[in-house]
């Protein structure tokens, strides 16, 4: 049984699919503000936040880490910029090889003589693969463990 000292409206991680009696899942559902007046003081709209598949982030509150956000506002995903560079053409046998760095890599090189008789001109095909620099998936996410968020209905 959960202790009732937890303030109404505080989302808590819960390890099962069903909340305990007197608690509600944070699934974006509307609730009856007369039945749950204390919950309505935390969520005056009468709607619980939908925390399914979401991470809770502390409000910036003047720290200058995530400025411009208000409490209960949502934020889309983003990743840090991934950079790299590559050279295009090598001219002459003593010129440096075509290179690729960071998330770019060479898939092949080929002869690219511009005019007949030019010695050792080469081109390159390069590709971009972020997984060469960072872990990748079909979404951006930190390591995590799945829980349901619940709030006390009162």
TrEMBL record:
Residues annotated as domain Phage tail collar: 9-56
Listed InterPro entries: Phage_tail_collar_dom, Phage_tail_collar_dom_sf, Phage_Tail_Fiber_Structural
PANTHER family: PROPHAGE SIDE TAIL FIBER PROTEIN HOMOLOG STFQ-RELATED
Protein name listed in UniProt: Phage tail protein
């Amino acid at each position: 049984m959960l202790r009732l000292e937890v303030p109404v409206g505080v989302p808590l991680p819960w390890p099962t699919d069903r909340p305990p009696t007197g608690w509600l899942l944070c699934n974006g559902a509307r609730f009856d503000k007369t039945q749950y007046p204390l919950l309505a003081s935390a969520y005056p709209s009468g709607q619980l936040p939908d925390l399914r598949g979401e991470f809770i982030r502390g409000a910036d509150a003047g720290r200058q880490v995530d400025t411009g956000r208000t409490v209960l506002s949502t934020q889309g995903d983003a990743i840090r910029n991934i950079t790299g560079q590559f050279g295009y053409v090598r001219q002459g046998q003593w010129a440096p090889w075509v290179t690729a760095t960071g998330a770019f890599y060479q898939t092949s090189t080929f002869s690219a003589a511009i005019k007949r008789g030019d010695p050792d001109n080469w081109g390159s095909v390069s590709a971009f693969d972020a997984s060469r620099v960072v872990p990748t998936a079909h979404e951006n996410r930190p390591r995590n463990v799945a829980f349901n968020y619940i709030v006390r209905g009162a």
